[in-house]
Each structure stands twice: as C-alpha cells, then as structure tokens.
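Listing 4. Sequential folding, example run.
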Amino acid sequence: MRTSGVRGLAPIAVGLGLILLPAPGGLSDAAWRFFALFAGTVTALVLEPIPAAAAGLIGVSVAATFRLVDPSPAGSARWALSGFANTTVWLIFAAFVLALGYERSGLGRRLALLMVRAIGRRPLGLGYAVALSDLLLSPLTPSNTARSAGTLFPVIRQIPPQVAPGSADTQRRLGGYLAWTAFA
C-alpha cells in the first residue's frame, strides 16, 4: 500500500482500534469513545493525510453525529457549532482572508512601494511609516493580532525587497526591524 494510503487509514485505525478496546476502570464508555475520536483526530493532524482544518472539522462532525458530547441531537449540534459563534475567531479569520487578498492581488507590494516613496528609503522613516499605519488601522481593527499579523505583515514583508533588492543580509535585517516595529 502506498504511503498516502497508510497515512489516510492510520487515523481511522487508531480511532476504531481504541473504540474496540474496553474502557479503562474509572472512565465511562462515552468518555472512552470521545478519547478514541480525539486520538484519531490528533493522528490525522500529525500525519496530515488531509489538511488540518478538514481533519478538525471531521472530528467535530463525527463527535456531533454520534452524539459523543450531548445525547440530544439539538445539544450536539449546538456544541458543534458553538466555536463558530465567537466573534474574535471571525475577526481573525477575516484579517487572514484580507492578508491573502493583499498577497494574491499584489496590493501589499503596491502599498509597500507607496510607503517607500512617501516616507523615504531610510529604515527609520520606514519604521515610522509602519507605526503610523498601525495607528491609523487600530480604530478599524480592534484585534491586535488581526491587525498586525493579518493586515500589516503582508505589506511589511514586501518592503525589504523593494529597498534592498540585491542584499539578502540587508533585507533580513530591515525585515526584522520592520517586523519588530509592527509587532512591538
């Protein structure tokens, strides 16, 4: 059997293998089944036969379908969907979607070029530009993580190649300085 097939079957084998074993003393059958699902999901996350997000969603779906967390169908569905009701999760998700858009559309590169042209080619001026950008974005994006990692990072990542196109060491040092400025 090919390696990808083994990686795909291993999480199922781990989960089913644990379910077939008797529950240890002091542990209910429901808790043992939930542990078996958890072990199978963790195996899928480690071996990566499918993307991690899909493995996690499959684990939650199986737990809800087999009512491992709540015996009622409505309670089990409510548990499965409760993670999606958190506004912070959606805020960070939206920031990363915007970051992907910056990357794919080239908007991050264009914003980096505008910052270099407006503030100058000196690292201190670029640091001020990054700090000013963070200040201007702060009322619009209340999550510091979403603002820094999702919005500023894709733009900051494009600046060093524009300022020092040939020198990898200068790009590394300038990128480190700008990242420190954005995240500090």
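-- end of first protein; second protein begins --
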Amino acid sequence: MQIPQSVIDEVNQRADLVEVIGKHLKLKRSGQNYFACCPFHNEKSPSFSISPVKQMYHCFGCGESGNAVSFVMKYQGLDFVSAIQSLAEQYGITIPQDERQEKISREEQQKRKEHKLNIYETLEKACLYYRQQLSQSSVALHYLREKRGLSPEIINKFSLGYTPAGFNNLQQAFPDYPTNKLLLDAGLVVVNDNNKRYDRFRERVIFPIRNIKGEIIGFGGRIITKGEPKYLNSPETELFNKSHELYGLYEAKKEIRDLNQAFVVEGYMDVIALNQYGINNVVATMGTAATEEHIKTMFRFCDNICYSFDGDNAGKKAAWRALERSIGLVTDIKSVNFLFLPEEHDPDSYIRENGTDAFKNLATNHSTGLITFLLNQLLEEVNIATDEGKARLISLVKPYTEQIKAIALQVILKKQLATMVDLDPSVVESILNNRSRFAFYNKSLKNISNAYQNNLKRQPLNLNLLENIIQALFNQPLLAREFPLPEIHVLETKDLDLSELFILIAYLEAHCDSFDDIVITDLKMMTNFSHVNLLSIYQKVKMERENFTNTFTFSKEDYCKKLHELVYEKKRPRMPKLN
C-alpha cells in the first residue's frame, strides 16, 4: 500500500510525541523535556528523553532515537505503513487506499471503519461469553488445570474460554443470532446448505487470538473429547489472516524485546505451557508454516529467532519450511536457530516432563544454526563418499547460497561445504558464485610461471583420441558436465594440451547447451593447444551438421571412459604439430 506524502506529513505534524509515548510509558518532566526508563533496553535509571519542542526522543543509554512514527514502529513492532495507519487512526486522519478511494465519500469511509469496530466488539463479546462458560465447566477446568497443569493466572493471562456441546450456544450472548451478520463476518458461525447457521466452535477450549495491539481478531479451539479436527481456527476474515498473525505475540512482545529472542512453536498449548514454566518470549504460527511476514514481524522485535517444533518427522518438515522462508531474511545480525526436541516430545510435553532449566539448557547449548541445519539436511540426500555425491551436494546447496544476503554467513557456508566435499574453498567459491570452472582455472593456468610451463613434464598423448573427444564435445557440449569434478582437476597437472582441454571443457560446461552456443573466437583466445587445430575441428563439426551428416559422438559412458583413458594412458609417440 502506498500512502500519499501529504498524509505522512500530516501525521508527523499532528502526532504529539509526548502523548504517543505517554500511552505506553510513565513519563516524568524535567525542565523542558520528559524522561522515562527506556523501553528498548533494560535500565533502572531513566535515560530516555522526549523533547516536546523538537518532537524527538533519544535514549542516552542505548542510542535509540526518532519521532512518533519510528517509536510506534519500534515499540509495537509495526512496519512503516502500519505505524502511519495507527497514528492516522488515533488522530482522525483519513488515508486514501488508492486513487478510487479519493472519490469515496467520507460517509462511506466512516461506515467501513464502524463495521470493523463492530466486528472487534462482536469478537470481544464472544470472548467474554467463552470465558464465562469456562468458569462454569468442571470438565474444561479439569482439563486445563489437572491434565495441562495451568494455573489460574496463566488461564487469565491468555483469556482462555470454553464452548460446550450444542449448535447454537452463542445465541445466549447474541439474542439476534439467526440474523446477526456480524457473527458471519467475524467467523463465529457457519451457514449450512439448508441456510441454517450453527456455531463454528463447539465443545472446545477457546484460545483468543489478538493482533499486535491486543485486539481480538479470531479464535482457536481445541477439542477436549474424541473428535476431529483436534484444533480449529477462525476462517480468514477482514481482521484475521493467519499468514500475518502470530499467536501470543501481544503477550510476548515485551519479553521478546527485552531478551532479544523469540521462540517459535507450532501450537497454542506450546505457547501457554512454556509461559506456565516462566518462558514468556514465545509465539506460535497457528497450524501454518512460518511465512516471510511472520519472520519480518519477529525481526522487528528481536535479533534471534529460535524455531522449536515437535521432534517427529512432521516437526522436522515444518523446520525445513521455516528455513526456506528465513534464509533470505537473515543477516549478519539477524539470526535463526532450530531447537530439535527428542522425537517423542513437543515443547509442551518436554517442559512439563523436564522443567524450565532443562528446556533453557537445550535451547542454549544444543540448538542448531541455520547453516548447520541446511547442510545436514541436504547431506541426507547424497552419498558424500562418492564424487557424484559431492558434486550433487554442491548443486543442492547452490540455490540457497544465492538467497543469503549476509556476507559472513555466506563465507561460513562455503567454508563448511568445502570441508564436506574435500575441495579447495576457492573452487567451491567459484562454483557457488556462478563462476564457471573456466573462470577460476583459466585465470590460474594463465598465471603459471614460464619456468613452470617450460619444466612441466609432458606426457605423450593419443592425439587421435584427443581430437575425437574435442569433436564429440563440440557436437554435444552437454557432455562437458558429465565428468566428475574432482577427476577433472588432474587435467591441469598432466600436460599442457590436457590443461587446454580442461579450459575447453570448463568453457563448454558453463556457457554452452548446444553447438550454436559455442563462440569459436572466444575459445581460440582462451586456449593454446600445442598439437590440435581447434578451428579445424570446429569447422569440420559445423560443416557436418549443416550437411546433416553424422559427426563424431559419444555416449555419456563412453565419453567419461575415453576421457579417463586419455588422461591416464601410457606414453605413445607424438604426432607432429598441426598447422
């Protein structure tokens, strides 16, 4: 969404910084300025200064500074647009949604705003009803207190509720139940094929879902008897989009900011159980994989995200999806870790069985970094003992390196990968940075000293076989990708013509999918064969292709076999150099 500059200017002009900050912090006046304990770091003596004249704040402890918009962004974890929207709403400033919005009457805009407010009120009223039902249900209270071990304080903190069996219980709270459109808009009721409505949540413990400002936007429900699904969420509504919202964030945001870390779990009960045991910096993704929006939101509050999913295969798959969403968002400051619990546990069961200290110890000393998790998972897909497995591991890692924006993290990944595949880090660097083998080795070969070249031990070649290989490569450039990477390195140390063949293969591998991709003038400049006329072979292949005659070809197996034979064959008499 694009907000007109005129609206931004009006927000900056009308928003009173003292009023904005005073809603959240206890301010004390000293001279012309106000002071408070900084909300962005722990301190006992107030060093957070607010200037009404300059409409700026500054913390002399941690260095945070800004205006009303930046405070709302930082304190509430909002992006710029959301912060402007929040302040605009607070000060009665209308934001046009698009060009057409300019034409919508102020009356229509007010209707839309009132409709949203009415949905919020409907959800709050439903929440109050659910909480009343919980206080009257011995079955639900027994489940939460005895089976789940929750204290009254935790039950109240998360405003837990209950809805008994029955299809129209909400009618007790909403007398106009059969016709109340807001119940539909809020996702509280469902209409069947016979146009009859019934409660969405029945015989379930209820978990209110709040947005970052604390407003209820939906509910989750867990069945406490036999039945499916075990968990049920509100549908997507005007207020609720589960790919953007995190359960428990409103309750956890201060702790997340103070500890500079957020635990991400899968379910409501994981969040609540960890809170019961004193771990309050926890949020849940509500049955969906972590999205980029989730990750960006958390990174606005802290620098470290630790995913803690179930220890089973489903949990590992969820962790992998989280890695894929996170890898492009991490930086050298913003990091992601993974906490893998024993297979039989989820965070709820683990902390209830082992306690707070055990969970903290596991998180501190046994969590897995993003790079380690990435490499370990990909390692399971290859046989690293073989050259082919090493080559495949490099190819699997490559797309992920291209997503990483953090320079230091890239270096660490490439170094660890080089160790795994037993290659020089510079070779791995060359491949992962989209530079061909040619780009790296052409440079190194051309820099070999003249003395080394003059003294290089020349092995007599089977030049007929060499020419056949080159002819096959010109005709089938994709063959260049078939010879194992570690094996190809021997070409640079055997013979100058083999070194030139190495450059040819590397060029074709990197640049050519077909004969038409070959630029012979480039190849002639790059290579300097002693006993092969490269242009002659190229022209021969070109003529045969134009005349639709059969030029020389190899199968993949024969190509690898012949190339191996050429490299390791015994000495044979040389043919004279071709002109």
